[in-house]
Input
Amino acid sequence: MFEILRREEMAGGTVVLNEISAPLIARKAKPGQFVILKANETGERIPLTMADTDPTKGTITIIYQVVGKSTALFKSMQRGEQFQDVIGPLGSPTHLEKLGTVVCVGGGTGVAVLHPITRGLKDLGNHVIAVIGARTKDLLILEDKMKAASHELHVCTDDGSYGHHGFVTEVLKQILEEKDVKLVVGIGPVPMMKFLCKLTAEYKVKTMVSLNPIMVDGTGMCGCCRVTVGGETKFACVDGPEFDGHQVDFDELMQRLSSYKEEEALAYEQHTCQCQA
Amino acid sequence: MAKAEKIPRQPMPEQDPQVRKRNFDEVPLGYTEEQAVKEAERCLQCKKPSCIEGCPVSVEIPAFIKLIREGEFTKAIHKIWERNSLPAVCGRVCPQEIQCEGRCILAKKGDPVAIGNLERFAADWERAHGKGELPPKAEPTGKRVAVVGSGPSGLTVAGDLVLKGHHVTVFEAFHKPGGVLVYGIPEFRLPKEIVFQEVNFLERLGVEVQCNVVVGRTVIVDELFEEGYDAVYVGVGAGLPRFLNVPGENLIGIYSANEYLTRANLMKAYLFPEYDTPIVKGKDVVVLGAGNVAMDSARTAMRLGADRVRIVYRRSREEMPARAAEIHHAEEEGIEFFLLTNPKRFIGDDQGRVKAMECIRMELGEPDESGRRRPVPVEGSEFTMECDLVVIAVGAGANPLLTQTTEGLALNKWGYIVADPETGKTTKKGVWAGGDIVTGQATVILAMGAGRKASDSIHKYLTWGW
Ligand SMILES: Cc1cc2nc3c(=O)[nH]c(=O)nc-3n(C[C@H](O)[C@H](O)[C@H](O)COP(=O)(O)OP(=O)(O)OC[C@H]3O[C@@H](n4cnc5c(N)ncnc54)[C@H](O)[C@@H]3O)c2cc1C
Ligand code: SF4
Ligand code: FES
Output
């Protein structure tokens, strides 16, 4: 059913792209929505926001970073192999509208999620400024696509190996100083989103973030994905994954993301041992 | 008469509590043929059997018990199947003490006939010895029915309608069919193999089961009609976890029962790292609530290696809604009960993990709308309980994913679907609903009963119109 039709490695093999056959999902999916994937019988249910969809071909594209056992298992799957289960599209689609000047900021694999939103905002006639960053040049992904999806692209690397030497927030600050920005979309690692929101709050610019808490069902049935937004508990899988960044309790999110740190380390270790054996 | 009084109720052999509290194998081991026949001999074969009145689907109880007594086990199961398509499940999970057994005439003076155990025996015997023959199916009608949700109510509708010659497709959001029977009720109470065999039986009859389809997201109800379905049955259960809304509830180590049990059962986290899904293994566990869900959570925590498991409940023992057998089993396994106690807040460590719960004592006041005495807090009685895992099992609500995307479906004020209790018809033409999404979290047998009524009504509609 969910066959991998295309497989690419990016960022020196730390990031993988899979284009997967999933006609029912592709027909319905909108930017900002995610799917849950399970590789095999013993696998875990992993949520990933779709980077692209093609309703005519009946495919969806995911781009993920290898961070633990499950993503390592995904990476080991070759073209022609199948995911046992793919469920979606889940979550609420991004609310896209014409506002004027908007800035789309992405860090790490967050750029993959940001890309369809950036494209959508441009299609609606916004002036789109994109800022993408990575730790180092080799880890940067989708530069060309982001260039095409925006009017202006800024690139940053933490180590200065390419583009601006420093964080995406520094470039964003410059833009906020100079332009009348109506909306910032920030997607990336939680610390990045947290600092980005702190900055945009100072400039009182509306900011949307896409959250990635741990999930199980993805349909609002378990509460695993709960996040505090504006002092209220929300389920990211149905109420999100996008929220008003100024309302999100990022510290709680970061803590909850570390719930299974030890278990994940154990599973990953066992997995890599088996692969080497 | 004299004979019946002499035979005591045959106890069900069970795994020893000290052993079973650390494994996930089924607790009751089942009757042998001799035990079943002996228990069946206790039945008085009443002329006006009150047990049947206590059964929500009116199984002909004395008739099947008579067949067991005569050693006609296959005939016994066929008798049960006339009214109940999931006896291996019901024999294990029905609250018999308030249904058939509670109404058995023998219960007036002593122990009722062990109807649940006998039902389970007949079903298990057939699984082990039967030839797996399929019942006869009516000629194809060319009509197509979509069943949303593969819990007991959906499976009942699917089984009934496929036998009547309709083409049935079951859509399930999860990657495995079975509903609560698979993701909620643990292996030690209901082996998953039994549920999968039941689903497999339906598939052999021609029911098409499509997992990974979330109706309301992957497809919506109106699109099912566009795709050519003639009728839709909605049996999506009560899939919304209830939280307490007290401070600290989002600390690590605090789960809804839905999440805790789904990780343990559906995702088989108890086999981690062989299976990839992790679960917090508490040493000092608190479970909030006292229904079947709470008992299942507490007993799961014990099996995952807890040193201590406490059930904390704000009412008293009499009000505990769990099946008597579950409470009994939990106590045997060393689970402690803290009654008339209510949580006020959770306290975490510097890593954001729960380490304690502040509680307050309660006392019973005047009766509330439910007729039960309302628990009221005793001022100044706060105290703290240490814990490293908390499971919240205080009930479930209506999940809005399907209902919000289906136009013309009337809901009640809690978000449950309004359906005619006799037919299951909703306010939307061609759409029926039943089970927990109509009644709120109830029981397997009531969900099946609702499915049976709806399937009769759907069949009439497909034959004669709305
Ligand atoms: C832990 C636990 C223990 C219990 N113990 C007992 C017991 O001992 N005895 C007893 O009688 N009852 C018990 N119950 C209650 C009983 O299980 C339920 O009343 C019964 O399962 C309800 O059946 P249902 O078919 O209405 O729904 P469910 O069994 O809840 O099944 C609904 C199915 O629909 C699926 N679904 C939901 N939304 C969608 C959607 N949008 N699209 C597609 N599919 C969807 C769900 O994934 C699920 O598989 C227990 C419940 C729990 C949670
Ligand atoms: S009421 Fe009890 S004794 Fe009478 S028929 Fe039913 S099970 Fe047998
Ligand atoms: S993942 Fe279960 S409710 Fe969101």
User: Anything to note?
Assistant: Chain A is about 30% helix and 30% strand. The two ends of chain A are 30 Å apart (CA to CA). The interface with chain B takes residues 24-25, 28, 38, 42-45, 69-70, 73, 84-90, 216-217, 219-224, 226-228, 233, 238, 252, 255-256, 258-260, 263-264, 266-267, 270 of chain A (CB under 8 Å). The first helix of chain A runs from residue 23 to 28.
